Amino acid sequence: MRFCNIKAENGVHLCVEENGVIRDLTAAGFAFTMDEVISGKGNEELKAFLNKGLPVVEGEVEFANVVNKIGKLLCVGLNYRAHAEGAKEAVQADPVIFCKVDNSLTYAGASVELPAWEYSYDYEAELVAVIGRTAWGVSEEEAGECIFGYTCGNDFSCRVPQKRSGQWLIGKSMPGFGPCGPYIAPASEFKYRGRKIQSYVNGELRQNGNTDEMIFSCERIVSYVSKYIRLEPGDLIFTGTPSGVELEKAAGEQRWLVPGDKVDVVIEGLGTLTTYMV
What we know:
Elements: E1 2-8, E2 11-18, E3 21-24, H1 34-38, H2 43-50, E4 73-77, H3 81-86, E5 96-100, E6 105-106, E7 111-112, E8 121-122, E9 125-131, H4 140-143, E10 147-154, E11 157-158, H5 159-163, E12 178-179, E13 185-186, E14 196-201, E15 204-210, H6 218-226, E16 236-238, E17 262-267, E18 271-277
């Protein structure tokens, strides 16, 4: 079972997906939002609703953001050794942490503008951890209990401004440069280790990695970040990308994203996150 937010005539509805079928909790009268479920509210009510027939969402689905209220968007750089080596960056002893601004978050199926005043637009398939409990100074053992679940993410990057200084923010934070979704799989049902993680551009495979290649585990990342940033339910942590991005290629061989491109991020067990470049 996976959760998703969809757009409906009367607002955002919380749904559950299983075996390709999406059922509408909100339409059935479930009174809690995605954000509340993430934070642990409505658990008993949820069990009751899941045990009765829920209305099936028919026709084409338009997804909404995976969280209703945007919290912190944190990211880990250089968390796959082959990517770090390909980008000619040293592997660090601790996670490299940066962030995106709030309007970088967008939904599955969104169109993302690539401004004409820049180029060097790149894709980065990433596993995203969804925080479910407040985490402040937690151990690695405690950190796992602070993760509600996982979703697909794409850490879109504009490489030239990213490399202009030691701070990566401006190359990472254009509107829509942090799509996530379409589903959140609860950590109780989804084990993130050993999962294929891939990206496709216009149907062509570009990245083909596995979450086992992560240098720092999700628990290590959450524990480390929590020593400096108080994590709250609904915060999202992009956990790094495997090799295969355009940044790693030689000048002249880089095929930067352009308007008209379609990018798919596929993570085994989490589904496909599609984004359209305009």
